């Protein structure tokens, strides 16, 4: 599904799509060894936050402060606590965050200051009634505003405190050392506006307004949520909109929903406000195993303006507040979640998320599902993504503010200081000990909560319905199941949660969604279609489902074919953070559309750009991209992509013809432009040549590119233009007539088999029938992992590849057969021998009726050259990676296991999916299924022989396209191996006969493809020629195999026993064909028919009679 284009209004409301991460600078990372975290430490960890998927960082107060309330007692609004760094450090943090497309949200305590603030010191000394004295709220008696509640009852007996110097009482809603500012004084407004200007000019993106409900006092009220407060906020918002577009105000108003919603105004006050009452009720619903608390509070939540958004959270830096619950509900929460009185503080519970939920992974996941799917922007508290524990014995709320646990090293990797100098001790509770619970451990374990959270964040960012959609609740009879639908535009998402510790069933009323197909969002698993209104589901204990309800699959596919557009506002550095993010959003659709780019059949989840190295010039902008492709239920992989920016008429033409290489259009420039894979002819290859000639390294964002040369036979290169070649599994840059650079689409971990084989054959073995190897480009990432990006080799002009030669030959053969109409229907018996018979048992067979002299010459030469290459590989001159190994009986047993397994599993899948196949192919599939047991018996015969041959390194994927013809001889190219195998598997040794079988298989497929994919053959002639196609294939294969065997005679490349050789050939051919059949679901009907028919034509001794009869 392509993303809806982001509008200017959407950009202005970025906070709706945000994933906010709350952290305290002192708790996050210590870069100086002082024992306290600092701003530079946060900068060091921005990449971690970006990797997690965070889009905005909320910094708790970092101002100069006596720290009697952990920084919420501010001493200077326009400076930085020197323990944390300097103003310059903070500016750098903002710049570095913006480079990574991270927003920075800071916190301003509007309601009060520290009693050490210069304003308060001045006020104490100023005369009563003066402007400076009136910066704060004073009284001669503590009897005013008696209806205002005392918030910190555990610590304060009154909201008034006596000041002996001023000889008056001052007002404070929180601690006595935090006097409240007097917003009745216009000078306070002016002073606070200066503070806002200071930080917004510096570049912060948002401000959390702490304790905002208490700005004004009025006799006869509870001094909360007064109209004057809303008037001030609207004044502040107006000033913000006129001067700092795209910035955000977040109200911290711990109020009931109807009161908290007042902070939005009519869309002209705060942009966001916390939904405090929802948070405790999610915990209540989980413990009560009843959805009512959630439904009840959301029913009481008013509709908010279009440009407003709730902020929702599970835990934060304070206690789990229970102010906005009833007394009975508070008592229930204490009994369920805070049985130890020491874990209670004020009107709340001072515990982190994991300890609150008993470290139950299912509960933690379920609560996060609710967090990410409820209306609002989710706020994560640092450490909760790795299940950090707490220590409520530390007092106050310090127990949930301990150092971030980065590793199992000293001080949890937080600081290099003496452990006794830490601002707070790290967690050593056995269940949450930092040596077991830390980022490093979580990152290395793909089953950890960290990876689940990362996936959840990525999933939410893909679906705007979570951030911007409407919510409607379903009411199944089972009250333990919470089900609701989020809708936005054409996107509909169904969320179903089991709040119970036991399995539950639910019947959902999906009236109006009949015909929709539920697709699970995390795994992309398709569930049964909604056929009737009532949809039945069963859920595991504390289980959940998140479904996209796809109404019309054809529409989804059609949308994926649309050409997306992304915006680039930069004319100098196009690959800035904004452009990267846009391109990362459209690349998944491009990779899916260009199916050959991927080497995995797994479902693609997301793509991130690791590197963007510029090549070319300002006039011809090109980049070499390294992208990380993440899949569902499979490890991520690194791929390369060479992209170019094209403009003007060329770009317009590409849009008109919809070339497959078109990635997206680019908006924001003077002219229309597009981004394409590859480049146009005539592009200067100077960058590639200079990289090679100078052996220079190029540093990227996350690693280094370097060239490894073989200096023994270096040609002289000249500056030249080049052209782009797009191969099925790789791409290449040809620089003039000298240099060929093959760029590997997928980057290997360690040695790439193509570069390794090319160097060994051309340099070590001096084998002439492969391109001359010159060197390779490697990419070494920060962690030290080495990847081959591509290989340089000699460019050799070739007339064609072998596949084109075979196509021409087989087409001429078919035309000749059709001209002899009487012989088309049935081939003569003497020409009906199989490949093995033609090669070894009937070498004098006259096959001139099938193959021309030119054909015989070609396949004889091909067999000879392949044999010579294998002989070179069997005579190693270097290390163990090329030493031949015996084809042992134990290895033969493992081969048998693999072959019978792929036959069984493929047959079973064909049988299960038979009903969904095209009607024309079902009879052929049925015949294949009938032969299952006969084929398995043939495979079992493989165990009866001794194979006195060797295993060697192979080409590994030797199809006709990988053999070039120079006009005089053959050239073997592209030694990467099969793209669906791992790189380590591609480097394994095996029988040399495997490469022969690949060529035989390719001959068979090509002979049938001519019948089904070209217009040369009339439809009525196709069935007549199918038998002749097999005859041609067997004769060509027989000539090839005979020549190969003669070339390698006397070596240990083939078994000496003819029966063993025949059995090995049959079994390898069978395995090759069933490997192709494994991917039948992604084939078009014609290709599938070709593969099935070719599988039926494979010679298997015990099933041959049945084959011939049919």
From TrEMBL:
Example of a GO MF term: kinase activity
Key word Zinc present: no
Record keywords: Calcium, Isomerase, Kinase, Metal-binding, Transferase
SMART domains: Aamy
Matching Pfam families: Alpha-amylase, Malt_amylase_C
Example GO biological process: carbohydrate metabolic process
Reaction catalysis annotation: D-maltose = alpha,alpha-trehalose
Enzyme Commission number: 5.4.99.16
Superkingdom of origin organism: Bacteria
Residue stretches making up the Glycosyl hydrolase family 13 catalytic domain: 22-416
Coiled coil: none
Class of enzymatic activity (EC top level): isomerase
NCBIfam families with a match to the protein in the record: treS_nterm
PANTHER family the UniProt entry points to: ALPHA-AMYLASE FAMILY MEMBER (PTHR10357), MALTOSE ALPHA-D-GLUCOSYLTRANSFERASE (PTHR10357:SF219)
Family that this chain belongs to: Belongs to the glycosyl hydrolase 13 family. TreS subfamily.
Name listed for the protein in its UniProt record: maltose alpha-D-glucosyltransferase
Species, as recorded: Halodesulfovibrio aestuarii
Source species taxonomy: Bacteria, Pseudomonadati, Thermodesulfobacteriota, Desulfovibrionia, Desulfovibrionales
């Amino acid at each position: 599904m392509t993303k809806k284009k982001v509008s200017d209004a959407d950009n202005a409301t970025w906070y709706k799509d945000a994933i906010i991460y709350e952290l305290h600078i002192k708790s996050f990372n210590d870069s100086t060894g002082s024992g306290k975290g600092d701003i530079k430490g946060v900068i060091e960890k921005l990449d971690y936050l970006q990797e997690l998927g965070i889009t905005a960082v909320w910094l708790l107060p970092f101002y100069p402060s006596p720290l009697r309330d952990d920084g919420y007692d501010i001493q200077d609004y326009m400076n930085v606590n020197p323990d944390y760094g300097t103003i310059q450090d903070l500016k750098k943090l903002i710049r570095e965050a913006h480079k990574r497309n991270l927003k920075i949200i800071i916190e301003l305590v509007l309601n009060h200051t520290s009693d050490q603030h210069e304003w308060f010191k001045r006020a104490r000394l100023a005369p009563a009634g003066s402007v400076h004295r009136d910066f704060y709220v004073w009284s001669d008696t503590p009897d005013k505003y008696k209806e205002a509640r005392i918030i910190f009852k555990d610590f304060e007996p009154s909201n008034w405190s006596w000041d002996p110097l001023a000889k008056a009482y001052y007002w404070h809603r929180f601690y006595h050392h935090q006097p409240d500012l007097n917003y009745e004084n216009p000078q306070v407004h002016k002073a606070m506006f200066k503070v806002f200007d200071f930080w917004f000019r510096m570049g912060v993106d948002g401000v959390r307004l702490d304790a905002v409900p208490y700005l004004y006092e009025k006799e006869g009220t509870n001094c909360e949520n007064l109209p004057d407060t809303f008037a001030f906020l609207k004044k502040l918002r107006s000033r913000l909109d006129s001067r700092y577009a795209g910035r955000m105000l977040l109200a911290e108003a711990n109020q009931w929903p109807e009161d908290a919603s007042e902070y939005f105004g009519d869309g002209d006050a705060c942009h966001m406000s916390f939904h405090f009452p929802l948070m405790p009720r999610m915990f209540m619903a989980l413990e009560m195993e009843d959805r009512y608390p959630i439904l009840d509070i959301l029913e009481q939540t008013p509709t908010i303006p279009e440009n407003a958004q709730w902020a929702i959270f599970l835990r934060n830096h304070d206690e789990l507040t229970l102010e906005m619950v009833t007394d009975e509900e508070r008592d229930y929460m204490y009994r369920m979640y805070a049985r130890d009185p020491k874990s209670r503080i004020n009107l709340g519970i001072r515990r982190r998320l994991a300890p609150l939920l008993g470290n139950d992974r299912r509960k933690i996941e379920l609560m996060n599902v609710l967090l990410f799917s409820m209306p609002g922007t989710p706020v994560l508290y640092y450490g909760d993504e790795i299940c950090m524990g707490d220590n409520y014995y530390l007092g106050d709320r310090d127990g949930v503010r301990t150092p971030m646990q980065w590793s199992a090293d000293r001080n949890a990797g937080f600081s290099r200081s003496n452990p006794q100098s830490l601002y707070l001790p790290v967690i050593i509770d056995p269940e949450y000990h930092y040596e077991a619970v830390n980022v490093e451990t979580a990152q290395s374990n793909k089953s950890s909560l960290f990876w689940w959270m990362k996936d959840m964040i990525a999933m939410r960012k893909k679906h705007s319905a979570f951030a911007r959609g409407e919510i409607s609740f379903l009411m199944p009879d089972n009250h333990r199941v919470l089900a609701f639908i989020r809708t936005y535009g054409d996107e509909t998402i169904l969320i179903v949660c089991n709040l119970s510790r036991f399995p539950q069933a639910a019947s959902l009323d999906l009236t109006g969604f009949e015909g929709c197909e539920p697709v699970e969002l995390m795994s992309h698993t398709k569930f049964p279609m909604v056929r009737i209104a009532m949809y039945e589901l069963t859920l595991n204990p504390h289980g959940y489902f998140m479904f996209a309800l796809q109404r019309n699959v054809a529409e989804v596919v059609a949308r994926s074919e649309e050409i997306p557009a992304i915006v680039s506002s930069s004319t100098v550095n196009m690959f800035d953070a904004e452009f990267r993010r846009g391109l990362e959003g459209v690349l998944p659709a491009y990779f899916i559309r260009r199916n050959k780019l991927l080497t995995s059949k797994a479902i693609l989840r997301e793509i991130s750009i690791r590197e963007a190295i510029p090549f070319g010039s300002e006039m011809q902008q090109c980049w070499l991209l390294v992208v990380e492709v993440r899949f569902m239920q499979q490890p991520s992989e690194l791929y390369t992509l060479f992209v170019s920016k094209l403009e003007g008429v060329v770009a317009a033409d590409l849009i008109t013809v919809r070339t497959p290489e078109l990635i997206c259009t680019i908006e924001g420039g003077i002219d229309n432009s597009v981004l394409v894979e590859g480049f146009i002819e005539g592009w200067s290859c100077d960058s590639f040549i200079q990289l090679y000639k100078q052996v220079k390294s190029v540093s990227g964002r996350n690693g280094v590119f370097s060239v490894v040369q073989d200096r023994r036979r270096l040609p002289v290169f000249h500056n030249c233009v080049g052209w782009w070649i797009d191969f099925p599994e790789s791409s290449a840059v040809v620089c003039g007539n000298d240099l060929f650079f093959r760029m590997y689409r997928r980057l290997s971990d360690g040695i790439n088999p193509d570069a390794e084989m090319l160097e060994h054959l051309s340099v070590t073995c001096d084998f002439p029938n492969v391109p001359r190897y010159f060197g390779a480009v490697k990419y070494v990432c920060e962690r030290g992992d080495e990847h081959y990006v591509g290989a340089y080799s000699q460019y050799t002009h070739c007339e064609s590849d072998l596949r084109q030669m075979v196509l021409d030959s087989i087409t001429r053969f078919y035309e000749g057969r059709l001209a002899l109409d009487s012989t088309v229907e049935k081939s003569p018996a003497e020409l009906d021998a199989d490949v093995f018979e033609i090669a070894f048992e009937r070498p004098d067979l006259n096959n001139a009726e099938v193959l021309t002299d030119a054909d015989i010459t070609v396949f004889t030469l091909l067999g000879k050259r392949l044999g010579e290459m294998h002989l070179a590989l069997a005579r190693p001159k270097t290390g163990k990676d090329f030493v031949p190994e015996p084809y042992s009986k134990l290895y033969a047993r493992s081969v048998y296991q693999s072959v019978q397994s792929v036959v069984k599993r493929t047959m079973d899948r064909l049988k299960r999916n038979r009903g969904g196949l095209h009607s024309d192919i079902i009879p052929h599939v049925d015949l294949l299924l009938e032969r299952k047991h006969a084929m398995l018996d043939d495979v079992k015969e493989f165990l009866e022989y001794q194979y006195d041959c060797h295993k060697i390194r192979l080409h590994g994927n030797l199809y006709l396209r990988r053999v070039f013809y120079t006009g005089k001889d053959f050239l073997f190219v592209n030694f990467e191996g099969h793209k669906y195998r791992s790189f380590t598997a591609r480097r394994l040794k095996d029988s040399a006969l495997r490469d022969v079988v690949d060529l035989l298989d390719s001959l068979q497929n090509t002979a049938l493809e001519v019948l089904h994919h070209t217009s040369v053959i009339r439809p009525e002639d196709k069935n007549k020629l199918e038998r002749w196609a097999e005859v041609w294939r067997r004769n060509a294969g027989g000539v090839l195999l005979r020549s190969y065997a003669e070339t390698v005679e006397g070596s240990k490349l083939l078994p000496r026993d003819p029966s063993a050789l025949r059995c090995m050939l049959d079994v390898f051919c069978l395995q090759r064909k069933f490997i192709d059949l494994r991917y039948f679901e992604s084939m078009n009907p014609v290709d599938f028919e070709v593969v099935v028919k070719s599988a039926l034509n494979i010679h298997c001794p015990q099933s041959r009679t049945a084959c011939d009869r049919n």
